[in-house]
Design goal:
Chain A: InterPro entries: DUF5368 (IPR035308). Chain A: It holds the Pfam family DUF5368. Chain B: Pfam families: Pyr_redox_2. Chain B: One of its GO terms (molecular function) is sulfide:quinone oxidoreductase activity. The complex is a heterodimer of chains A (about 130) and B (about 425). By secondary structure, chain A is mostly helical. Chain A has one domain. Helices cover about 75% and strands about 0% of the residues of chain A. Chain A is built from 5 helices and no strands. In chain A, helix 2 crosses helix 4 and helix 3 crosses helix 4. The longest helix of chain A has 29 residues. Chain B has 2 domains: about 180 residues, FAD/NAD(P)-binding domain, CATH 3.50.50.60; about 150 residues, FAD/NAD(P)-binding domain (3-Layer(bba) Sandwich). Chain B contains 9 helices and 24 strands. The longest helix of chain B is centred in the last third of the chain and has 20 residues. Chain B is globular, with a radius of gyration of 21 Å. Chain B starts with a helix and ends with a helix. Classes of the chains: A mainly alpha (about 130), B alpha/beta (about 425).
């Protein structure tokens, strides 16, 4: 093996993902920017929100695994060695971490969305009221 | 066909770092616009400044041959392997849409199928392989897909027809025959992996117990690299694939579903319900019948080009390089070989044009993602000396059936291949 070439890797990723390379890149950038912005604005991490976003992001990790199984036309029962399990963990972790950042940022932003109080009030009114 | 080196070694540069462009007014002709020809065109256009580059090939559509196995496994449609030659050609390359009828290296000339004589200063011969179905008595390629007759190599459409044939066979089970020719061939792992695929499909359909699978090797091994051959032998034993040695398909009766093999003990006839026919392969006729071919030795009979195995430069005509399938070297009829051969040949040409010398060497690297069932493959990479040359030593074991190798084959290989054609990988 000779040295890894970042230019080659970029060319292959662009060929592999097409327009999705830029869409996912933009999504990752938005998530990171939003995450950073909310941390600066709130001067720290909200542990409760972090736990909630981590819990929701488990679905994102699972979705990453399902997507990978779909595009490779295979399943995780095909794992044959330690490197396969590491890859599965890495795919799940990638989805989970990315999902956590996005969800945390979205939950933080939600509080500053114009008109969100009215939306919350509307949702509250639509909830079935307990019988008197 | 196999090209894990594209997926594995594909992320690794063959000639680093990026060299300076060379000023030249030379006319460089590339004969053939397959994987090797297009890669050479892209890299020459990047490397040379002022050169006139002409590529000669009549084929409008480009075929991604490593995808044929996936098509024949029912995982991809035929269009998966088909794209347009024009979409890979660099802007300033002149394309003559005709075949190469004759090489005349004494006159530094190529004659096209339309009679045009094209003079060159340097030639890249990348005319590839002829599939000699005619050498098998009774074989009719128009019958592929009917009556249990399959042939993955012929074309994407034939690979899809082979899948339809396999799909029907998998419902009932029966006798399945697999083989390879006694000639050099593209990706010698392809017939082995298709045997594994059929075994797996039969198991998934529940008809494996009603089936007998037989692999007929043309000599006394299953693969030219001893350690890989032994591993495949063990896997075949484990999967109950019967193995025959010294069997070369001589003739076939598609109607009666019978195949006749030449063996050391005489002709042997076998009945089948499904067969994957792989024809003898020879260098493309124009090269085979030209002074560029070997005149003696093991590569002379099928007309492979007489090149220095380390530089890909022709031994008798130093302004000629031969890359891709037509090279008369011990290994390397895969797209992975192309990826490693072309930069070496171009480095030598560029050095000559610049008045310097190149120490680039092609060590015979080639690779095969040897599918052992749907969802797993072994990433087999090796060189002229039959050494295993893993791209990720200690991480991806070359003889281990792994999902990661399958992932590379299914999603990373084609993008890497296309990047190679564009000179970016």
């Amino acid at each position: 093996m000779q040295e890894l070439d970042p230019g080659v890797m970029l060319a292959v990723l662009l060929e592999m993902m097409g327009i999705w390379f830029w869409i996912l890149g933009a999504l990752a950038l938005c998530g990171l920017t939003g995450f950073g912005w909310i941390i600066v604005r709130e001067r720290g991490l909200s542990s409760g929100r972090l736990v909630r976003s981590q819990a929701f992001a488990l679905l994102a990790g699972a979705a990453a695994l399902v997507l990978m199984a779909h595009v490779t036309k295979s399943g995780f029962t095909d794992a044959g060695g330690p490197i396969d399990w590491l890859l599965i963990v890495a795919i799940f972790a990638g989805g989970w971490i990315g999902g956590t950042i996005l969800i945390y940022a979205a939950m933080g932003w939600w509080r500053f969305m114009p008109g969100q109080e009215r939306l919350v009030a509307l949702i509250t009114r639509l909830r079935p009221q307990p019988a008197a | 066909m196999g090209a894990a080196g594209l997926a594995a070694g594909g992320l690794v540069s063959a000639c680093a770092p990026a060299p300076e462009r060379v000023q030249t007014s030379a006319h460089i002709v590339i004969a053939g616009a397959g994987a090797a020809g297009l890669t050479a065109a892209s890299r020459l256009a990047q490397r040379l400044d002022g050169a006139r580059i002409t590529i000669i090939d009549p084929r409008v559509r480009h075929l991604y041959q490593p995808g044929f196995t996936l098509i024949a496994a029912g995982l991809q449609p035929a269009r998966y392997s088909v794209s347009r030659t024009a979409s890979y050609l660099p802007r300033d390359v002149n394309w003559i849409e005709a075949g190469v009828a004759e090489f005349d290296p004494d006159a530094n000339t190529v004659v096209t199928s339309t009679g045009q004589r094209v003079r060159y200063d340097y030639l890249f011969a990348a005319v590839g392989i002829d599939l000699d179905y005619g050498a098998i008595e009774g074989m009719d390629t128009s019958l592929i897909g009917q009556n249990g007759l399959g042939s993955v190599y012929h074309s994407p459409e034939a690979a899809e027809a082979t899948w339809r044939s396999l799909d029907r066979f998998a419902e009932t089970g029966g006798e399945a025959l697999f083989l390879r020719p006694a000639t050099e061939m593209k990706c010698a792992g392809a017939p082995l992996k298709y045997t594994f695929i059929v075994d797996d499909i039969l198991r998934r359909r529940g008809t494996r117990s009603r089936s007998a699978l037989t692999y007929a090797a043309h000599n006394n091994v299953l693969f030219s690299v001893p350690i890989v051959s032994e591993k495949v032998r063990m896997l075949y034993q484990d999967r109950a694939v019967d193995t025959l040695y010294g069997h070369v398909l001589k003739s076939i009766d598609p109607g009666a579903r019978r195949a006749v093999f030449d063996t050391p003990g005489g002709e042997v006839e076998r009945a089948y319900d499904f067969i994957n026919v792989i024809p003898p392969m020879r260098a493309a006729a124009a090269l085979r019948n030209s002074p560029l071919a070997w005149t003696s030795g093991p590569y002379a009979f099928d007309g492979w080009a007489e090149v220095d195995r380390y530089t890909l430069r022709h031994v008798r005509f130093p302004n000629v390089f031969v890359v891709g399938d037509a090279t008369g070297v011990p290994k390397g009829k895969t797209a992975a070989s192309v990826k490693w051969q072309v930069p070496v040949a171009i480095d030598h040409l560029a050095a000559e044009l610049a008045g310097t010398q190149s120490d680039s060497r092609y060590d015979g690297y080639t690779s095969c993602p040897l599918i052992t069932r749907l969802g797993r493959a072994m990433l087999v990479e090796f060189d002229y000396q039959d050494n295993l040359t893993p791209s990720f030593p200690g991480v991806i074991a070359p003889l281990e059936e792994l999902w990661i190798s399958w992932v590379m084959k299914t999603i990373a290989l084609k993008p890497t291949y296309v990047s190679m054609l564009r000179g970016e990988a």
